[in-house]
Amino acid sequence: MLTDTYIKSLKPAEKARKYADGGGLFLYIPTSGSKLWRMAYRFNKKSKLLSFGEYPTVTLKKAREKRDEAKKLLADGIDPAQHKKAARAAREAEEANSFKNIALEWQETQTVHILPAGRAHLLHCLEQHIFPHIGSMPITQIEAADILAFVKPFEKQDRLNQAHLLIQLCGRVFRYAIATSRARHDVTADLRGAIRTKRPKHHPTILDKNRIGKLLLEFDEHPGYYPVTCALRIMPHVFVREKELIWAEWTEFDLERAEWRIPAERMKKREMHIVPLSRQVLQILRELHRFSGNGRYLFPSARYMEKPIQKSTMLAALRRKGYSGSEMCIHGFRSMASTLLNEMGFNSDWIERQLSHDHRDAVRAAYNHAQYLPERRNMMQTWSDYLDDLREKARQCSETC
């Protein structure tokens, strides 16, 4: 039998040499001088050879353990070489089906409809907050508790939106794995109720008619960058979400039909949305077209014409006019329109459809982008006329008061 002292003393010879340890295990030393563990055995009346690695990485003790494990397999009628090959294939399959690999595949193939900034944000969340915890784990071995462990600290910090975002992101990866036959269950479904929800946020808005007129008048007289002025003037009339407006492209507009069709990938509910354009909005757009009509975006950045203005630009303009965060925000124009249009007696279904709020009937929602369109055209024109009236009253007051 071999000893460590003896093995260390062995030197390469002119020809390869074998040094037996017993039970089929031997040390093979080729002319290069490497010391390699091998095991000779017979299976189905055929001579076969098994490799255990190189000494001293694989110690004498470890080599004997591997030999004994191989003999147990032989006793059970299992070929150790085939068992080793199958185990290696299983490990490789687990690595290929790790949460990280599947998540990166999902991010690469299933988020192409999302704007570049959105895709970058998703990847950042994966790399910073999820991969360090479960990225290397086979997706089939991940349990709800594994996800809760790294999400719970966000709840303790009262970062509830972030906590729920991470759970939702994991869920999207799991559902993709299920669709591609690499998982059977979305474990994030078991986390329902595990993280408390945040109270709905009420966006501050102005509902006083005189103050609305004064605000609209200030937008008309805004002395800043022209596309920003136009964005401020248009927003109260169309009351879309801020992202939907600032990323608007000229190809989405049909000025002859007085329609703006916002593509599904930019909508919160991933459903194409039609915004009827009033005469007032069309006038602003025709004026703006002379400035940015040859480019891609309606509201190009002052520094980079190939990019739109930043999300904070409109809000910054609002703050410079003296409106605090408790008084008004850009999203507040949606609340303003919703409240006042209901007060004016318009059908609530028309209003909700124009606000592109979700519909409980998912099948119906897939086809409702044009729902109530004639009624909404009339409503949007009436709304613009109403805003014009408020602005003119504010102008008259400023001239006579």
UniProtKB/TrEMBL annotation:
- Cite the Gene3D superfamilies for this sequence: 1.10.150.130, Integrase, DNA-binding domain, Intergrase catalytic core
UniProt domain Tyr recombinase: residue ranges: 202-381
Q: Where is the Core-binding (CB) domain positioned along the sequence?
A: 97-178
- A Gene Ontology molecular-function term? DNA binding
* InterPro entries from the UniProt entry: CB, DNA_brk_join_enz, Integrase-like_cat_sf, Integrase_catalytic, Integrase_DNA-bd_sf, Integrase_DNA_bind_dom, Integrase_recombinase_N, Phage_int_M
A single Gene Ontology biological process assigned to it is:
DNA recombination
- Provide this UniProt record's keywords sorted from A to Z: DNA integration, DNA recombination, DNA-binding
| Family of the protein in this entry | Belongs to the 'phage' integrase family.
Looking up PANTHER family in the UniProt record yields: PROPHAGE INTEGRASE, PROPHAGE INTEGRASE INTS-RELATED
Q: What is this protein called?
A: DUF4102 domain-containing protein
Which source organism does the UniProt entry give? Answer: Desulfovibrio porci
Organism classification: Bacteria, Pseudomonadati, Thermodesulfobacteriota, Desulfovibrionia, Desulfovibrionales
